[in-house]
Amino acid sequence: MSTGCSCKSAQQVAMEEKFSKYVVANYTRLPITAVRGSGSKLWDINGKEYLDLFPGWGVAGLGHCHPRIAEAVARQATKLIHVANNFYIEEQGEFAEMLSTRASGQKCFFCNSGAEAAEGAIKLARLHCQPKYKIITMKDSFHGRTFAAISATGQPAYRKGFEPAVPGFSHATMNDLQSVKELVDDETCAIMLEPVQGEGGVRPATQEFLQGLRKLCDEKGMLLIFDEVQTTPARLGTWFGYQSFGIEPDILTSAKAIAGGMPLGVIMAKSDVAGAMIPGTHASTFGGNSIGCAAGIEAIKVIEDEDLMGNIVRLGGYIDQRISALAESAGIISASRRMGFMVGFELDCPGAAIVDQCRDNGLLINCTHGNILRMLPAFNITEDELSQAFDIIGRVMAK
Ligand SMILES: Cc1ncc(COP(=O)(O)O)c(C=O)c1O
User: Fold this and answer.
1) Is the pLDDT of residue 16 over 80?
2) Catalytic site residue from 110, 142, 226, 245
3) Mean pLDDT, to the nearest integer, of 57-64?
4) Residues of the chain with CATH 3.40.640.10
5) Mapping DSSP to helix (H, G, I), strand (E, B) and coil, where does residue 299 land?
6) 248-295 confidence digits (pLDDT tens)
7) φ/ψ (deg, to 5) at 209
8) CATH class of the domain defined by 67-305
9) Which residues line ligand 1 (CB under 6 A)?
10) Is 398 in contact with 330 (CB distance < 8 Å)?
């Protein structure tokens, strides 16, 4: 792994000029043009190598360019890329069966992203429970950038400039059942939350809280929706995040790593709930097309064949050890939270400079909420790669 200079090459400067001229400037971009990836390694336009512990913001769960995903996509691309959803699509049926049988018989609706899955889950909940329409979500949650998703998201900053929000959303406090109960009324149709808040700083729900929500939903005839865009598939060491808690939602959403890096989202709902979606109620042109589903099918097979959930469970303890050692040596870590391969540690100082210096030294990690360092490693990362990553963080923090 190369280390060193953060000065920009002529190629990088030219790329930035092109973006400045032709691309909407809605993203804060790193000064890197990524051109190639393999596993947990990423290379930039100048040939500099990075160890990527936040690959594709959680999309590259199998690492970059897993050869079996590349092969499945290439094979499917020469057979059939896309037909509309008024045909039966072989790969969609097979992928739905693989997901459903690894859960508990839910039905799948396929879309393209996490926000689209959130949007669809919200529509499904309203449709199933009409005329009830209110949905309670959690403060600090993140559900995506579409209108219903920013309205569901429990962080006002994401709605700023876009008001008025979609009506019917209110925000309770994670792990505080009483705060949820206080918001329930006769018009509430659902409670929606991430079982582990990701963008909110890697904050898992407690078992007790989820149990309480399940009971409350059952008593009041409301639906429990889990946004599992980050936690499914496999990231917590179980196929679906809810299986790690033993609490089953009525609807769940997933996206990110669900199709080995291809853009795909899914809503999975219990049969009786899914039944509300009849022709004409909801649709997605690209959702569940042959190529995305072929990648999804292969991703499931890879996770099984390579025992990647076993890898997550095995290496989880190693990550904990390295964070505790780091906390002792660096003295700036005030809390750490990990569930499976969702890792966050809170600093008692701003984290941006540490992330920048890690990047200069060939390591990619993320910082959220100003002081929470975050990692979403690929499920097939090795202990050696994790060790290199923590060595770099240790050296940076020591400065
Ligand atoms: C929990 C959660 N839900 C929804 C989304 C939105 O997903 P997308 O960006 O694919 O629309 C994200 C994205 O980070 C997420 O973490």
Assistant:
1) yes
2) 142
3) 98
4) 67-305
5) helix
6) 999 999 999 999 999 999 999 999 999 999 999 999 999 999 999 999
7) -65, -50
8) alpha beta
9) 113-115, 118, 142-144, 194, 198-199, 227, 229-230, 255
10) yes
